[in-house]
Write a structure and sequence with these properties.
8 helices; 168 residues; mainly alpha; three-stranded antiparallel β-sheet; 3 strands
Amino acid sequence: MSAQPRSDVTASRPAGTEPEARQLTEAVTRLRRALRSSIRTDYPWETLPMAQVELLQVLGEHSPARISDLAARRRLAPSTVSGLIGQMIAAGLVTRDVDPADRRASVVALTAAGHEKLAAWTTAHERRIDVALTALGSSDRAAIAHALPALFQLAEHLGEPATDAEQR
């Protein structure tokens, strides 16, 4: 697969869509797909659905947390998060307990197995990306390192509510 965006995708972009936005969308999509595929090949034990990984990541930083807080942080419906948490409880990755601050509510926290699974997932992905980065030339690695702050800033902006003009 070539490193350049497909010309048919770029040529057929909707009016008002910047080529950079289209290319970045394609690059992110390819990166996620390639990483997920390579992880499943290199680490066949890695079967955790991405939605659960993302909840583990949030809980790794903010634990314990209420379902509503997890839903807000991941921009998901509380019922969706509740269903995912149910699966994760069954897998032994998280626990659900009464919130000591409000006994009407519950909080979710990582178990030791959840911490281990998150650490293994993170390590496997970091190793895989490190191998891929090593295969690049020094100028490409430098360009990626230089772009990281801007990519984090872009992620922050994407986390903000869209304006009416953006939704059209």
